[in-house]
Amino acid sequence: MKYDPIWKVAKNVQNKWNLVQHYMEPIFEYFIDPEVTEIMINGFDNIFIENNKGKIKTDATFENEENLMRLIRQLSIALRQDKGTLGVLHARLPDQSRACCTSTLITPTGASITIRCAPKTVLTFDDLVKYKSLTQEMADYIKVSVNEEKNAIISGSTGSGKTTILRAMAGFIAKDDRVIVCEDTQELGLKLPNVIAMEAPKREGSEINLSYLIETTLRQRPDRVIVGEIRDASACDAFLQVINTGHDGCLTSIHANNPAKAIRRIQYLLSKEGMIDFEMAGVEVKESINLFIQTKRTKHGKRITEITILNEDGEMVKVFGYDQNNDLHFKV
Known about the structure:
This protein is an alpha/beta fold. The chain has ten helices and 15 strands. A nine-stranded mixed beta sheet has the order 9-8-10-11-7-12-13-14-15, sandwiched between helices. Helix 1 (11-23) runs antiparallel to helix 3, helix 8 packs across helix 9 and helix 9 packs across helix 10 (278-286).
């Protein structure tokens, strides 16, 4: 089966990405489906997708294990990550979809690929209000916070909508603000007038990581810095240092079950590496972050379940909450 190329890339790599598309044939219909958010290949003949109806087992299958590995190998070639042993591959596709691939070195029962499909349309807060992810009052509150250059952390589990909220918040940023974006793997794809988007290289031997990128922003005249997701102590420390050097309106996300636990996770990351003791790390966060937004994937869909601020005394004050039983947002 032949398809028109879905990715328009530089001429010198177009054929490499055309081959990626060719080897994706068994899952291609799901990849281009605007309703599909995840494709989960647990083995060449065990493939699930996720959409707004939940996780669904498909009838799709690769012909055999080797055909699935051909797709992984071609991804590594297209991304110039084909040096050394192929065990785990973190890939970014040209449309900003993300893929995590493993070979049988890591998953002995069979290779796997998990694809976080990039949204075919970028959701705004108007869309999110329509889908009941939050209320209009909550959206207006977030807009004011962005306009007032509050530093914010979006917390939640994997697939709970953190990136969607970050992307939507960027839509409230003033047009003349210079924004620097740092990500381990690019997926935000912000369409702003004055923006630089940086990604940590995945090539073997590279010493450039997320914290290095965050530190680099200080030499790029930013008004705001956006970090896609904080996963380790060095990135966390670098993000806080950017804020403490006079840059307001910075945004990031982190895995945590609620805003209080987001603070504790940052404290744990920083204290575990000996950068600062646990209590002082808490003080550092509370002096730096103004706004916390909690996201969750509920039985009703993805929801903002809490908006919390830190008052002048460093106390957490919940402004909005969410009743999951009744799928109802409320103001505290």
